[in-house]
Specification:
- The chain is an alpha/beta fold.
- It has a single domain, classed as Class I glutamine amidotransferase (GATase) domain (Rossmann fold).
- Helix content is 26%, strand content 32%.
- The chain is built from 5 helices and 11 strands; from the N terminus they run E-H-E-E-H-H-E-H-E-E-E-E-E-E-E-H.
- A hairpin with a 3-residue loop joins strand 6 and strand 7.
Length: 186
């Protein structure tokens, strides 16, 4: 199993570490690679779109040819995890246009309004310590997307086919349940 983390910007090292811990916890052989250029996505069994600045990520992924490779991977059913900015990129109106969701950027406020909250996530479990940093939120889920978690009047986790979109950062907490859930999708 090879999991690629888009390594243009954002919490790349944190996702790599969380995935490596999760693979070890599952006693599962796998490789986590960082993707900074085109040509690597097609060899991956799963892709992670980390948080960061969504406009910058979109421009660099488009310019470098990575976005086209991810669109092809999505059409092929490759599991995709999008966190924070990654969620924004997956939304129908944004770069990848893959999920039937509509997103509101910075729904919970700016950087100084960042917080952690305990949320219940369908398929993951109760009391997950979700960290929201300049977090977006899903304001509309179409018929193709399933709501997995809500917080503060918004949808903060959704799944559609092989895509998992989260408004929060599961990679910066010690709880690996979200990453276990993602690995089960592969």
């Amino acid at each position: 199993m090879k999991i690629g983390v888009i390594a243009i910007q954002g919490n790349v090292a944190e996702h790599v570490s969380a995935l490596e811990r999760t693979l070890a916890e599952r006693d599962c052989h796998g490789e986590v690679i960082t993707i900074k250029r085109s040509g690597l996505v097609p060899g991956c069994d799963a892709i992670v779109l980390p948080g960061g600045e969504s406009t910058t990520l979109a421009r660099l992924m488009q310019r470098g040819g990575i976005a086209a490779e991810i669109r092809h991977a999505i059409k092929s059913g490759v599991p995709i995890l999008g966190t924070c900015a990654g969620l924004i990129l997956l939304a129908k109106e944004n770069l990848l246009g893959a999920m039937d969701i509509e997103v509101k950027r910075n729904a919970f406020g700016g950087q100084c309004d960042s917080f952690e909250a305990s949320i219940d996530i369908t398929g993951v479990g109760a009391a997950f310590p979700a960290v929201f940093i300049r977090a977006p939120a899903i304001v509309r889920c179409g018929s193709e997307a399933s709501v997995l978690a809500r917080f503060g009047g918004y949808v903060v986790a959704a799944q559609q086919d092989s895509m998992l979109a989260l408004a929060f950062h599961p990679e910066i907490v010690s709880d690996t349940r979200v990453h276990h859930y993602f690995l089960e999708m592969i």
